[in-house]
Queue: 2 jobs
Job 1
Amino acid sequence: MTRKEIPVPTLERLSTYLRALASLDIQGVEMVCSSNIEAETGISAAQFRKDLSYFGEFGKPGIGYYVSDLQKRIEKILKLDREQSVVLVGAGNLGSALAAFPGWKQHRFSIVAVFDNNVSKIGRKLWDLEIQDVRELVHANRDYQAKIGIIAVPATEAQNVANLLIVGGVKVILNFAPATLRAPQGIVIRNVCFIQELAVLSYLLSEEESKIENVALPSGNK
Amino acid sequence: MTRKEIPVPTLERLSTYLRALASLDIQGVEMVCSSNIEAETGISAAQFRKDLSYFGEFGKPGIGYYVSDLQKRIEKILKLDREQSVVLVGAGNLGSALAAFPGWKQHRFSIVAVFDNNVSKIGRKLWDLEIQDVRELVHANRDYQAKIGIIAVPATEAQNVANLLIVGGVKVILNFAPATLRAPQGIVIRNVCFIQELAVLSYLLSEEESKIENVALPSGNK
């Protein structure tokens, strides 16, 4: 059995389509064409069609795609068609915001446990989950069997937490701490870094400003 | 004057290098070679050299790069070598987490104002900033002149907030709400979507699991 691995940028676009489709679905839209997707996501209609062609035929020529069909197909590709347990480490503001996020259920992710190292938090509730001592993580995950972990702790604690998650059986980590984490092969880490996003925006802002300047110059507006 | 626009994936990698360099700098490392960067970021040494070559010569052949030099050069490329004002909308858990984030100053971003629509929050402090009524945003930003806005409000409010930011003069928006936002040309929006990150991880997890299965099969381990 051979599997083609899907490149990460394609995965990212697929999940962007999924978000757009969910939004269209809520609006009661039943069918879309690739130009609707372009309007909704900013990803070109051609790129959208190319991404889907990778997985075989989807749409009806000249008509478009059924929103609910397309959602299901993409969910299947992304393996979102099954329940997935997630453990969250960090019950601070960020952890609270993440736990309260309404999108989990929709995508069949379930935060099954929350851990922290702050004794004043341990035993209290974060929404409907009891905050557990992070030192119990490895042991506790024998029961939960979560393969996905989220790190929402300060940078100085992030590597320790990653180590605990990995020893506890977690295979993929979403890291919100501004730290570069080390992990053995076979463990996948994705870093969410606000500052990196802002750095990109900072450059794009300067681009926009220079365009405005160029338009104002006689020679620039060509 | 011609400018080559830097593709977004390159910008993203540049900010990843910057993060790695900051981490090495804290550890007291003075010089790095491209393989150090690979170890630190997971981005290949060849890709790193290619990215830098885009901006001219940086390193010393056979020796490597001065960490502090390289940081400054990349900061300059990303236009992080100047103070930048940011307005934050949303003083909930996520907004609080973002405002408390220690990386702002380091990258010369300054959150100058926080807005919310919740009357029980308006007038109170979020860290050292007074939470202002979101209806004052457009007027208030005449003084702040912030070009960067962060949206940390529920999805249902996000488009309204984006509209206010844009009318108020904001040019680039970092959107944390799980909503697809519409904006006129010339406005740059970047969406930070946790669920999208998890969707990517979900697929990568299934890949890892299938690799383990394949290794267990006699024909799979080649």
Job 2
Amino acid sequence: MNGYELEDLPAEEIERLTERATALAESVRGLIQTTVVTEVGDADLDEAIAHIRAAQLLLSRKTLPGSFGVRFNSDGTRRTWGNAVTGTRNPVAPPVVLAHDGDRTWSEVTMGPAYEGPPGLVHGGVLAAILDQVLGSAAEHAGAPGMTGTLTVRYRHGTPLGPIRAEAWLDRREGVKTFTMGRIIAAGAVTAEAEGVFILPRWARGAAAESLRPGVGDA
Amino acid sequence: MNGYELEDLPAEEIERLTERATALAESVRGLIQTTVVTEVGDADLDEAIAHIRAAQLLLSRKTLPGSFGVRFNSDGTRRTWGNAVTGTRNPVAPPVVLAHDGDRTWSEVTMGPAYEGPPGLVHGGVLAAILDQVLGSAAEHAGAPGMTGTLTVRYRHGTPLGPIRAEAWLDRREGVKTFTMGRIIAAGAVTAEAEGVFILPRWARGAAAESLRPGVGDA
């Protein structure tokens, strides 16, 4: 098993699953944010932990054998719900919801206290993770999907916790390499700039690689 | 308020708080991992969500007004529990626990399904976040704490989910800039290499900056 699964689910079933996955993940995201800032005493803490363990026990009754991977539908759509940055059902992910506007790929997302690095600021590594995803998506949007080869982030200013915008665009293509650029904008200023080199997977070379498809060797 | 707080807590109280924070965060980390892979039906899901909301309500009874920031103790130790990569009480953080061995700063940590990018592999952005933290800690360990100026990550191979080792060391210092290098090792191979430039905060320049201290301007 290589983590890619082809599932032929009807659109309404996917919609229903998405709704359920979102409800669950959103409840856990709320819990995460509160966990970081809670100041309650031992009694409340113990009761909260008991609830959390009960929830985990219920969710453990039936699980996937490994990680979520990528699920493909016969209509060509795919679900990457486990993705650490964009995953709908991954509470670690903000999640980053990607949009495309002309040649620009972007996302607007709010960074809560769970994404803190220096006091009051977003962790530089979290920004790097978001940039990796947005720059990679820009490469794919330009018709050249790939694995990250190199990612460079230049930090210009601290990025305050709160709403941020990440955006990326194609710079150029050179053979199997696609170069994209991007940046983080927060409170009206560019706080970080990035360059990414994405490498076309071996299995997609020589083919019309218009979208990521199930296959091996793309690591 | 700049997010740095000086707290004069006795050592045993800090130990007790650490134990409680760890118990809470670990329960939420377990819940996160299960959330990503659960396949239970609606009844279990609804009951789990009810428990999660109950837990959040309990923890919400008393919270910090903003993010966790950095708490200093009079003995010079500090707590960065909210940190998205190393935070003891931040369930988003694996957490990365840093160690120093001679001139090397390192961490060994297990990447569960919540840190997935490509199927079965760690998200490249998560690796960048860990490298940012470990390279920055290596700069601080070398006596030159700083904010990340530039971070470059070169991905050599996919990094399988599971145990990884991140390590970093000082390369050189040039004025207010400290250059560190590092890498990720997984399943016996170097899967990513990184270079970081860390900038000494303005407030620490000209002073004996042996450790990060409360102050403004370090953004």
